[in-house]
Amino acid sequence: MTGPVSTTCPYCGVGCGVMATVTGDRTVEIAGDRDHPANGGRLCSKGTHLGETVGLEGRLLHPMIGDRRAGWDEALDLIAGRFSAAIAEHGPDSVAFYVSGQLLTEDYYVANKLMKGFIGSANIDTNSRLCMSSAVAAHLRAFGEDVVPACYDDLEQADLIVLTGSNTAWCHPIVWQRIEAARAARGAKLVVIDPRRTETADLADLHLALRPGSDVALFNGLLAGLKARGALDRSYLSAQVAAPEGFWDALERGGGLEGTAAACDLSRAELETFVDLVADHPRMVTLFSQGVNQSTQGTDKANAIINVHLATGRIGKPGAAPFSITGQPNAMGGREVGGLAATLAAHMDFAADNVDRVRRFWRAPSMATSPGLKAVDLFGAVGDGRVKAIWIMATNPAVSMPDAGAVRAALAACPFVVVSDMMADTDTGRFAHARLPAAAWGEKDGTVTNSERMISRQRPFFAAPGEARADWRALADVARRMGHGAAFGWDTPGQVFDEHCRLTAFENNGARRLDLSPLIGMDEAAYAALEPTRWGRDREFADGRFSTPDGRARMVAVTQQPLTANGMTLNTGRYRDQWHTMSRTGLSPRLSQHRREPLVEVHPDDAARLGLAEGDLATVTTARGRSVFRVSVTDAQRRGEAFVPIHWTDRTGSGGRTGLLPDASVDPVSGQPGFKLTAMTLAQLRTEWRAFLIVRGTPAVEPDCVWWAAAAVPGGRLIELAGDGDPSVLEALLPKGERMTAVDPARGSLRTGILADGRLQGALFVARDGSLPGRDWLIAQLSEAAAPSGLLAGRAPGPAADRGPIVCVCFDVGARTILTAIAARSLTTVAEVGAALSAGTNCGSCRPAIARLIAA
């Protein structure tokens, strides 16, 4: 065992510090870093179980050209040659990079420099386009620069916290803990704006279950209501803010509270309560995330929120700010270096003086002079042949992009696709002509910037396995082969970071808030030891000056787009314990227990109308595609709406393919797709049988049936299945060994167990009447000596305790266990349940669920 390494979590934009202590060749103990300002030692369930995700299962360990192994020199020569040939024949806009918020800032910087300064195109965009580009566009319109004005401390100093488009307890659990702390310490009020009654909304003082997409109407109505109550900050508006002519008159035409209530499908009383809370609590933070951004009107929504803060002077002050919170660990770092197609570098746009400035700094021979293609348009250009070569890094657009079927067709038709990834087999990687093995978390060396502008180090504690390399190094190697060696001659990531810092300061003179002058000139030792550092002030714009020509912020006139009800609408989002397309979290047995399969959540009235019951299979169909989900009936959904998760891929199931469903409509300003409001139909899917397979390791082949979904369990995989015809074909999925079989023709059941050396290797249970045993006892047999007498029954001999569905993943505590303890010990608070069972005492994301069980 070596000493702990201080690094940063690779998941969401909270940017938590992690202490990693290596215990073996590929084993590590994980703890929160008590000295990191973002989390103070706390970790969510995903961060807590990072140690389950660092093995080499499924890793890409050497370059591949087609289906054969290649050396790095051969692969890099091929990439440089194909990109150079495309540029020579078709021009620089015939090539593109599609990168990721999973990249480190140093990786991002090199990719952006190569594309925009030396290839001469701005065709580099990032999957951050899908999660926060509308916030970027709103910041630029309002502030003149993409600056988040808040810090996490503001949450603990606020008297009112408004969460809109954010299931914070699930998606940013450590931020949720800080909100809980503020409520406990200050009695802060909490408003949650969300069409769904999420676990976050369950604990709100006011939950506004508005009509999806009506956020602009809501915040315009709020601002009009505040004006009517005399709650605007007239002096701040006069001195620091500019509003377009007719702004206030247009706001008055919104119909008042009655008109807002009708537009948002809320009651007048709910709106009056909201306006009263905002008017009475000047210390207000509005935290917004994907529910706002992922919309064809996402930029307008964000500006409607910012308008409220500007009009009331609630910005640049302790406990008062609009606060966009990012989804990925380094979405902010990508924004800083220019990783989005519409920005140049270091918070500079494509104005002629900025192009000239960056050209001189980089000594660039072929500067891009205008914005490039944003993600949706970029893949459209791949599909229609304008882009001849694309390099995709650290992301899986064949799963995550909207209209993913069209993205797959585009990649299949592209003459040359390069994929850099840590995993050998991804949905996107299957379209690659060349694949490069990338370093993963625990092997990477560089920096990330979190949602509050805090720069933190990601440090390696493992050597990169096989021939895996850092992404910045692979990019620099290609740049040298393309003839740009002098500009890409770094030896370490610290040298790349220093160049990035120098560019932010170059001819800045206070024009841009992003200025990393204090970090320029660090030697390798100082870079290695860099402590978490927030750039700028804790609260930007505290001086009342903005990054606009006249120094005043801009109110932006925004109008609610019409919302047409056309049957049911589909909403998409994340599960608590999974991350993106599960290439990392899907390896963790613990994280896979909360939701083992993708669910479509529907209101009981819709379920009854459609003839659906809990546990049924149903097909979700949109104009772009279809996919199959398990039905979950819940009154947390609004009538006429459904929710599905984003995580499942072709590697983890035949259904749950959410990216196939939304169309490619985007916000006209930001280019961000609208994932949250897709017209859909829902219909029951009937199959002749259902089954499950528990198998040690991973089956050699994928199931061939109507529907299946896989989840990691201790020692192997659990695969749920359904289909038609003869289910005995599933036995091909079972490993070799001593076979035990039971067949019940009357019930149409088949049960087969495979043993080897007294240990369970696999178990297949099939039933035509749907009667299948629980899975937990059989799963446990993978990790202990099997009990053959209970194997085909699917349970231990004698009575067995049922702990129910897992509520607390951190401590593996089920709902029935909690309910039993509540009844037996007369527990009345979440804290008492925590003291009795430990549930809810780590990341806290399950505390709303525990509170609901107490109230039941």
Textual characterization of the structure:
The protein is of the alpha/beta class and 856 residues long. 30% of the residues lie in helices and 20% in strands. The protein is built from 29 helices and 34 strands. It has a seven-stranded mixed sheet, with helices on both faces. A hairpin with a 4-residue loop joins strand 23 and strand 24. The longest helix is centred in the N-terminal third of the chain and has 19 residues, at 72-90. It is globular and about 80 Å long. The model has no long low-confidence stretch (mean pLDDT 95).
Q: What does the secondary structure layout of this molecule look like, with pairings?
A:
Layout (H helix, E strand, L loop, with lengths): L4 E4 L8 E8 L2 E6 L12 H4 L15 E2 L2 E2 L2 H19 L4 E5 L5 H15 L4 E3 L6 H11 L9 H5 L2 E5 L3 H4 L1 H14 L2 E5 L5 H4 L3 E3 L6 H14 L5 H7 E2 L4 H6 L3 H9 L3 H13 L3 E5 L1 H4 L4 H14 L9 E4 L6 H7 L14 H11 L12 H9 L5 E5 L3 H4 L3 H10 L2 E6 L12 E4 L8 E4 L4 E5 L12 H11 L11 H13 L18 H5 L4 E2 L18 E2 L13 E6 L25 E4 L1 H7 L6 E5 L4 E8 L7 E5 L32 E8 L3 E8 L10 E7 L2 E8 L14 E7 L4 E8 L2 E9 L8 H5 L7 H4 L14 E3 L4 E2 H11 L4 H8 L9 H9 L1
Parallel strand pairs: 6-7, 6-14, 8-9, 8-12, 9-10, 11-20, 12-13, 14-15, 15-16, 21-25, 22-24
Antiparallel strand pairs: 1-2, 2-3, 4-5, 4-16, 17-18, 18-19, 21-26, 22-25, 23-24, 23-26, 27-29, 27-32, 28-29, 30-31, 31-32, 33-34
Helix pairs in contact: 2-21, 3-16, 3-21, 3-22, 4-15, 9-12, 9-13, 9-15, 18-20
Strand coverage percent: 15-25%
Strands in their spatial order, largest beta sheet: 5-4-16-15-14-6-7
Question: Which structural class do the helices and strands define?
Answer: alpha/beta
Poorly predicted sequence stretches spanning 5 or more consecutive residues = none
Q: How confident overall, as mean pLDDT?
A: 95
How far apart are the termini?
46 Å
What integer value in Å does the Rg equal?
27 Å
- Most strands sheet: 7 strands, mixed
Tally of separate helices: 29
Number of strands: 34
Helical coverage, percent range: 25-40%
Tertiary shape: globular
